[in-house]
Structure formats: structure tokens, C-alpha cells
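hey so u asked for the seq, here:
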Amino acid sequence: MGLDLDVHGGLTYSHSSLADIRKNSWFIGWDYTHFGDYYGYDETLSECFRANDKKWTTEEIFNDVACTIDQIITFERKKSIINIFSVFRKFWSRNK
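ran it, C-alpha cells below
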């Protein structure tokens, strides 16, 4: 059972290390510079060439991160419940 996170544009980073950080952890990341997202260079273009892409606010990004954390917590809870049932089934089948 894998974790399929619903984040803006999908995960763009998923690895056991991040820069020089090497711990017994897993790091994930995603970005807000996909097609339709504001890149920051529109001001250098003539008005007729500007795309008027989505400018993500800090609050929107924070809410997206909070939603992702909730997804991870829900996944871990489900995984724990499945593990508990699995242990219980093994115990029950041995002690019938």
C-alpha cells in the first residue's frame, strides 16, 4: 500500500536525503511553477504577452502544506490499523 499524495502539480521531489541532510527520513517536495502558475518574469514582458498566471499566496501554500500533512497522517493511521488487524489475524489463526 503506497501513499499517493494529492499536491499541486504532483510531487517533484521524493528522496531519502535533502542537500547535505542524511537521516533515517524521507523528504518530499513540490513546487508552484507549473503551466498556469506565475513565474515572476511577466513584468519584463509587454502587456500583450503577459499570461496573467496564478500568483499563489503564502496562505494558499500554507493551506496546501497543511492538507498534505493531513493526507500523510491519515495514511499512517490507516497503515497502523491494517498492521494491527494483520497481527490480530495471525494471532487468531494460530490460537484457534
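The chain has one helix and two strands. The mean pLDDT is 83.
lmk if thats what u needed
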